[in-house]
Amino acid sequence: MSLVLPHAFGRYTLTQRIGEGGMAEVYLAQVTVAEGLSKRVVVKKIRKEFADQPEFTRMFVDEAKIALGLNHANIVQVFDFGQVHGSFYLAMELVEGLDLMGLVHSIRARAERMPVVIAAYIAHQAAAGLAYAHQRRDDFGTPLGIVHRDISPHNIMLSLAGTVKILDFGIARTSARARLQAEDGPGRTRSDDSGDVTIQGKIAYMSPEQARGGPLDQRSDIYSLGVVLYELLSGELVFRHRDRLVALEWVRTRPLAPLRELLPELPDELATLVDRALARDPEARWDTARALQSALAGFLHRADPVVDDEVLSAFVGEYVGSHGGIQGGPPGPAPASLEGHDDETRDLDASVDSQVIDSPPALQRVVLLKAALEPALPGERPSAPTQFLALARDIAYKRDAEVCQLDAGGILLAFGTVLDTGDTDETAVRAALALREAIGEAAPGYGIGVVLAGLPLAMVR
């Protein structure tokens, strides 16, 4: 049965479901702090189907242990962790704005380019947050050795006030946790299709050593932030391919072209700074995020115009209206040129290298999900299901589905057209269940009918 919102969840009142991830779902919530005063927060809770699985529960608890100890202006603050009716949750600050990938897509949709100084300022602020996390120590003064391992535009929030905040330490590791995992032994190591140990994170932003499944230190995060800055400056998304294993091999073996080859007009100081962050050999990178931050600060100090929170706030404000504006929520409807190629979880995009031009049609088995929306009561005319459609898009993104139709008349998703992961049927069924679960809370007054069909289709890339 669907959860009807608003809904009491411990001391929090969940008011709106705004998204879901691989193991968690995210809600806007209110909490009473004192004397009847309430505060808006974000509650992230583990999804019901994963609540009894020790691996996912451990990851969630690990995230809480790390995030609760971090308090910095450039990191989304987590201030509560607990369990309600067997479900673990995190409560964190609400950042009203959009994630960096949302901004990138909006800029690309307008065929515009992000100003160099804005890109450098965003990277500078993110480096400050990383430097703080990397340098954290325990109560005895021992370095924790935190590595985020998932720095990407999706995990960098830009607030309407012009602040830059890193979020989602869900797969972060401390040096102590890394040692424990190394001691588990080969009998406890899972593998992916390539035969490597399971690799977590967004492929396009992994360091080469992370893509190889090797040991990581904080220089891996520096490389990831370097990829983010490279994309912001060049306007191109890198390491995208429809086959994840091909993309993974590219990250392992292909160095990115020096920025000056793409942007001859880019200042030498900034181009050299980025190239050093992207060094294949960790020994050749910046030693610390603090050193990278300092180098970016030097560039920004001499740059014209000067950028600060107010300038970034005005820049973000130009785009946030067309792309949603709530932390953790799915983006608004993608522009036609980007439809079906959102990078949020797929790690792919329509880059020149990844397109196959004029290839002959090939039959491929896909699963189609058709969902029809109708008023639950005859004669009723409920308001437009805007929130539900946004959630449906988020569900599609998280499950590698191509969105063929998404409007008040219905939903059509195709599974297996973009990536053939081998579990297309199960993924489609899970998506159907997620849509049915979401309809009651996100589109009150509506009912939903879902049909699944597997069939061979001629695919033209």
Characteristic terms for this protein:
single chain, alpha+beta, four-stranded antiparallel β-sheet, 13 helices, 21% strand
Can you describe this structure?
It is a single chain. The chain is α+β, with helices and mostly antiparallel strands and 461 residues long. It has 13 helices and 13 strands. It has a six-stranded antiparallel β-sheet. It has a four-stranded antiparallel β-sheet with strand order 11-12-10-13, covered by helices on one side. Strands 7-8-9 form a three-stranded antiparallel β-sheet. The chain is globular. About 11% of the residues have low confidence.
Helix/strand layout:
Layout: E1 7-9, E2 12-20, E3 24-34, E4 37-46, H1 54-67, E5 78-84, E6 87-93, E7 97-99, H2 100-109, H3 116-134, E8 156-159, E9 164-166, H4 175-182, H5 208-211, H6 219-234, H7 244-253, H8 259-262, H9 268-277, H10 289-302, H11 309-320, E10 362-375, H12 386-398, E11 401-407, E12 410-415, H13 424-442, E13 446-459
Antiparallel strand pairs: 1-2, 2-3, 3-4, 4-6, 5-6, 7-8, 8-9, 10-12, 10-13, 11-12
Helix pairs in contact: 3-6, 3-10, 6-9, 9-10, 12-13
